[in-house]
Amino acid sequence: MAEIKLEHIRKVYNGQRGDEQLALEDFSLTIPDGEFVVLVGPSGCGKSTTLRIIAGLEEPSAGKVWIDGKCANGTPPKDRNLSMVFQNYALYPHMTVYENMAFGLALRNVPESEIKKRITEAMSALGLPSEMLDRQPSSLSGGQQQRVAVGRAIVRQPSAFLFDEPLSNLDAKMRVQLRTEIAKLHTRLRTTMVYVTHDQLEAMTMGDRLIVMRDGRIQQVDDPMSIYSSPDNMFVAGFIGHPSMNFFKGVLTAKKGFLYFVQDGTEQSATPPISLRLPDEKARAFASREGQPIIMGLRPEHFQDKLYMKDPDTESVFEAIVEVIEPMGSETYLYLDVARTTCVVRSRPQNRVDVNRKIEWVAEMKNALFFNPTSGDRVF
Ligand code: ADP
Q: Are residues 337 and 282 in the same domain?
């Protein structure tokens, strides 16, 4: 079991044409022993580089890596007692499942009886039948191969597991299955796990804590629900959650003694720009910002169809045109044109809507978030 600590890590790669590629900048993070953290962000943001630096497959250009209280800079991967699972399984094709799992242990002179015991336990934890032990990887499905790769990591009893996009090559159903199995494994073993993914849903469902990254820098570190409900900036707000948060450009405007968010409008739009009253708490916080441009964010679930509401707050109502209807079964996503801004709302499948019709919606303003249009930082 291990605490992993990264201190002011910087990583610069030398490109093929002699140019420098900055992959990580001032990356500091402490992962307590036993925690499951997920590094999440778009492709190229430095997730794999971070994992490879922890593993010892890359050395940082600056900064320190600590594993279990010891500085690991310069320690080769084999001496770090970490197990890594890759996207492409990386099983030895000419070895059986048993041999693949046993290989690393045999190299470390673990007795045969102990190897057998660990492999039997790992197979059962991953729901793999023992008959599979004699088969070669090529005769297994992608999901089974990745389970074997996870099994190979488990039997080494590492002080931490490192996962680099392990589910990316699997079909959707298998991804969900293995996702829950890895989560169960963590509950059972309580070993530190560092998991890299570009998939925000995987990150939300698996991690104790998420590290949201962009362009080699940490954007936010928190538990999944705090990141979802209190994103620090527009990037995090837009990246986490599906469908993404809706953003509206506008101005804070005082009317009739209250503060309103008034959307920037265009003459050509089929519906007027929205004008929505801020709840008292938000209006108080924004009193000094009257007249200033601002961006309002609302998630798709924070809208209601006015037709189905008993007593809608008239100050939160706006008009929109339905552009696309996406039935998902348990819910329906509607893409609305709101004065030339596309807005996705979550609707009940039984609600009746038609494309190109003008309808009235109610925004749950108590859930609205506000961002600085220049920096993108959340202001409330
Ligand atoms: P992610 O895992 O988030 O997709 P990476 O850590 O793989 O991102 O890459 C971060 C940045 O570093 C990218 O811009 C990538 O092109 C660059 N990079 C990664 N590995 C190398 C390498 N071996 N040589 C040069 N540049 C690299």
A: yes
Q: Which of 17, 19, 27, 48 to mutate for ligand 1's pocket (most ligand atoms within 8 Å of CB)?
A: 48
- What's the distance, CA 17 to chain centroid? 33
pTM of the model: 0.94
Nearest Cα residue to atom 10 of ligand 1: 46
Assess whether the C-beta atom of 51 lies below 6 angstroms from ligand 1: no
Structural domain harbouring 194: 4-239
> Any idea how long the chain is?
380
Is there a domain that residue 379 lies in?
A: no
Q: Residue 206 CA to chain centroid, in angstroms? A: 9
Asked, for residue 376, whether it belongs to a domain, the answer is no
Q: Determine the residue of 49, 165, 215 to mutate for testing ligand 1's pocket, defined as the one with the most ligand atoms within 8 A of the Cβ atom.
A: 49
Q: Give the atom of ligand 1 at the shortest distance from the alpha carbon of 196.
A: 2
Evaluate whether 82 touches 160 at the Cβ level (below 8 Å): yes
**Ligand 1 mean position, distance from CA 22 (Å):** 8
Establish whether residue 302 lines the binding site of ligand 1, counting it when its CB lies within 6 angstroms of any ligand atom: no
**Ligand 1 atom 16: residue of nearest CA:** 44
The answer to whether residues 255 and 233 belong to one domain is: no
Which residues are within 8 A (CB) of 92 and not within 5 positions of it... i.e. 6 or more apart?
99, 100, 103, 137
User: pLDDT tens digit string along 5-16?
Assistant: 999 999 999 988
Domain boundary among 215, 239, 263: 239
Whether residues 74 and 204 fall in one domain: yes
**Are residues 328 and 256 located together in one domain of the fold?**
yes
User: For residues 119 and 151, is the Cβ–Cβ distance under 8 A?
Assistant: yes
Domain boundary residue among 239, 268, 287?
A: 239
Whether residues 215 and 336 share a domain: the answer is no
Is the shortest distance between the CB of 86 and ligand 1 below 6 Å? no
Nearest to 32 by CA among 83, 75, 67, 81: 67
54-88, pLDDT tens digit by residue? Answer: 999 999 999 999 999 999 999 999 999 999 999 98
**Do 178 and 93 reside in the same domain of the chain?**
yes
